[in-house]
Amino acid sequence: MAAAGLALRGALASGAAVAVRRRGGLWSCLSPLPAAPRRSAAHFAFQPDPAPSAYGQTQKMNLFQSITSALDNALAKDPTAVIFGEDVAFGGVFRCTVGLRDKYGKDRVFNTPLCEQGIVGFGIGVAVAGATAIAEIQFADYIFPAFDQIVNEAAKYRYRSGDLFNCGNLTIRAPWGCVGHGALYHSQSPEAFFAHCPGIKIVIPRSPLQAKGLLLSCIEDKNPCIFFEPKILYRAAVEQVPVEPYNIPLSQAEVLQTGSDVTLVAWGTQVHVIKEVAAMAQEKLGVSCEVIDLRTILPWDTETVCKVLLNGSTAFCCVGHSSQFRIISKLAEGTLCPLIQVTDEYVE
Amino acid sequence: MAAMAALRALRWRLPRTPGPGPARRLSTAEFPSPEEKPQFPGASADFADRLEFIQPNVISGIPVYRVMDRQGHIVSPAEDPQLPKELVLKLYKTMTLLNTMDRILYESQRQGRISFYMTNYGEEGTHVGSAAALDDTDLVFGQYREAGVLMYRGYPLDLFMAQCYGNTSDPGKGRQMPVHYGCRDRHFVTISSPLATQIPQAVGAAYAIKRADANRAVICYFGEGAASEGDAHAGFNFAATLECPIVFFCRNNGYAISTPTSEQYRGDGIAARGPGYGLMSIRVDGNDVFAVYNATKEARRRAVAENQPFLIEAMTYRIGHHSTSDDSSAYRSVDEVNYWDKQDHPISRLRHYMLNRGWWDEEQEKGWRKSSRKMVMEAFEEAERKPKPNPQLLFSDVYREMPPHLRRQRAALERHLQHYGEHYPLEHFEK
Predict the structure, then answer these.
(1) Model confidence over A179-190: pLDDT tens digits?
(2) CA distances from A269 to A97, A248, B211 (A)
(3) Does A145 sit within 8 Å of B192, measured CB to CB?
(4) Which B positions 203-222 lie with beta carbon below 8 A of chain A?
(5) CB within 8 Å of A57: residues ≥ 6 apart
(6) What is the ipTM of this complex?
(7) Which residues of B are less than 8 Å from A198 in CB distance?
(8) What does pTM read for this prediction?
(9) Strand, helix or coil at B255?
């Protein structure tokens, strides 16, 4: 896995740009393609939020830049905080840690050997010793070697010790979801595997603005958090993001649009899809949709979602994984509300 | 592109001398005989012009460092740590108290009083010798058979018992099987059942401690079986590359439950892996408490002074069964066990030493056995009288703050017990 993974990792991050530069020599003998080649098959329209006024000066940032900004704020505020993972020292394959090693020193932003279980285990230890650990798993697809450390160790540290020890200062970041050319092993959304694990928090932002506030909340939260970053948004999503640190509370869903007929729930990239769907439903069918971004997958905001259900939506649609759908469907049993899940039961 | 990358690597390795542009720098004049020395970034050595595989045992067995022979005589006076009498007595009393506690708790499991137990028989020297060589604030990550380390640091008998009983005095709130001790004040991280997970964690803690510049070390215990886990590899490699002040302490006791070392690994034990990771490594006689002490003391000193990890492989023998769920007569002979119990036991070796020095006699031995047994029995009886923790504690500490869904579950349990409590053994639980 490692060799193939490495080759792909490099290709994904910088492949497109390099490919263009390489075109000379033999390439020039080939006849030009009939149309501009489509590198990506994914489609959605990113819908930015308005610039916030509450947190001071804002700056145009894409999602990877807003992550960098959050990490910058975290390192500045907390001298014990360290960032580590594969290739983070030079800025990371997705450029999320650019400039941080130079600014904060190589003992605070450093590469580790290529070993996910080691990265998470190491991060737990950093946190147990009282420092702040920000671990990067290079792709969510490669988080599984660390499954034991996350599920059996990080999630249970406080509980099993009777609160004598904890690793609440640990945050695990990982690029998540599809871009369109990552195929089987650079596209996965593995949050459902962790969504049944008490003791950890799972957060997935929909935008640069959300990403910074939620990531800072994860880093400051006293429970181990997994922060999945929709990698298609790294460059595609641009918003005005405050330069100063700010927090968006965890375990609080956000109602993006109120509606009376159907409730749509999603997280991450899919939020933009359901926003578009809601607009189409209104325009073409005259159906009024409530749109909810769940934001925190565990522990999720049952109150906001249930309130909407009890308010009498006539249908409920969960765009995402069957795990949440099953829970929501259980909650909705008493409401006589038809439920639709827009994902196959067995495709997580 | 690959060629360009190689050239870049070469340039990086060259001394930076002022001169003309890059093309000039790559001339043979300034890069003499690049063919004569491999330039791969991943290794530094010479070319070989003969096909030859490296033998797995480069040296014929890593020797076992010892200070005392089996009769308790110092083999080489230069290696005698010359510990004062009080300290030696403390070592001995901790080892024997541990042995006494083991006998009583093992028996109590057999009588159905506690659910499970793991004895430390035969490995007392590794626990106590290493614990004595550490600073009391050095952070300990154990596996599960290191009760002697905690006992050496003064953990009281009643808390050992409380954990094994899972009663109201258990700091772990009755959530884990017996022998999963933990103590924040004594810097002993709570044991967890999954094997080897503590190894990369200990490395991370050592890294944080190094940054805090606290003149502390981390020690991480594990067995030779756990060393087969991927987490062991991860921990060794991270510790070396990230230059962490940690002592890896492997208790090689011959068995992982029933699996003998011959089926666990094919190389020369665990110490032989050290050089592969870039770790300073040593193999010691784990039944020689002074050898363990010396090795740990020096490893600990250098780990902190030089910010580098050390690996100690302590050779010992698990005289007891793996646990109360195991019967080792199914896979090893009584004669084999008897040899270690009668001929090469760490406690009897230290007792020989003390007798040789005139620091101990039969009468003291009898008196100590009697009083230590009394202490253990008193703590045992007290633990047995205490109730189990309140069932409501099932829901706390999952998160730092209890989220609404757990509050709902806790309330539901409370309602359930109000209605149907008569069907549960609630009289054994704290109200």
Answers:
(1) 888 899 999 999
(2) 22, 18, 38
(3) no
(4) 203-209, 211-212
(5) A242, A243, A244
(6) 0.91
(7) 398-399, 406
(8) 0.90
(9) strand
